[in-house]
Amino acid sequence: MGLAYALSSPEASAFLYPLWSIELMLIACLYAYLGIKTNNILFKMTYLMLANGALTLTFRHYRNKLL
């Protein structure tokens, strides 16, 4: 889905971004879960940083709609 969003036309991206952000939110939840469950501090930090990046991209769209 992410590749389809990246290669889509600007007109289609208005419809694809909400779908892509939901997919990205699910991936962020998985990274956050893995970050909480792992005991290795390096893996924990990596998973939580990935979750943070994914959530930042997800909420950027909704923040721009509110402004």
UniProtKB/TrEMBL annotation:
Which keywords describe this protein according to UniProt? Membrane, Transmembrane, Transmembrane helix
Membrane-traversing stretches: 15-34
What protein does this entry describe?
Nicotinamide riboside transporter PnuC
Upper taxonomic lineage: Bacteria, Pseudomonadati, Pseudomonadota, Gammaproteobacteria, Alteromonadales
